[in-house]
Write a structure and sequence with these properties.
This protein has about 180 residues and is mostly helical. The protein has seven helices and two strands.
Length: about 180
């Protein structure tokens, strides 16, 4: 496949998956809010934000609301990995699957960085990670450890399923993209 076609597939994949990731992230928050009895009053993919009204929250459900934005996309990414067909030679499939796994895993890096900032007293106040630490009372080091374990597990599973190798092969094959 030619370099221009691969570049178009890469860009198309990102253009599809970025709004999809935001939808899943905000959908995770929305799902927990609805389960807590809230009504979703605003859902925006462009602003990556939801508003809800009402609901009954406690320490656990507030913490779940904060972490659902990262867990819901990770869940779908994990499902994609489970059903990934490593022998399928469709270039778009390989590129799309790589990014569908990369975006949620990439967002887990915030769950490593923000707790460090939290311990230094510089965490962003309205960030999901900061809110999670405040609502749950879990020490930031535990949050970092769990995030690193999730990152390691997802990257290892993606490697085992050959997502990373197939992406690299697809992009490098007769191409100068990488």
């Amino acid at each position: 496949m030619g370099s221009i076609k691969k570049l178009i597939l890469l860009l198309a994949s990102i253009c599809i998956e970025l709004p999809l990731y935001i939808f899943l992230h905000e959908g995770g928050h929305s799902l927990v809010a609805i389960l807590c009895g809230a009504k979703i009053t605003h859902f925006s993919i462009l602003n990556a934000h939801i508003n809800s009204q009402g609901g009954i929250y406690n320490t656990f459900t507030s913490s779940l609301l904060n972490i659902a934005g990262v867990l819901f996309p990770l869940f779908w990414s994990f499902l994609c990995l489970i059903f990934y067909c490593k022998n399928k030679e469709n270039d778009f499939y390989r590129i799309f699957t790589f990014f569908i796994c990369l975006m949620p895993v990439g967002s887990v890096f915030a769950w490593v960085l923000v707790p460090v900032l939290y311990m230094l007293g510089n965490a962003p106040a309205n960030d999901d990670v900061t809110k999670f630490i405040n609502n749950s009372g879990i020490h930031p080091l535990w949050v970092i450890l769990c995030a690193i374990l999730i990152l390691s597990a997802m990257i290892t599973f993606a490697w085992y399923k050959k997502v990373i190798q197939n992406f690299k092969h697809t992009v490098n094959e007769k191409s100068n993209l990488y």
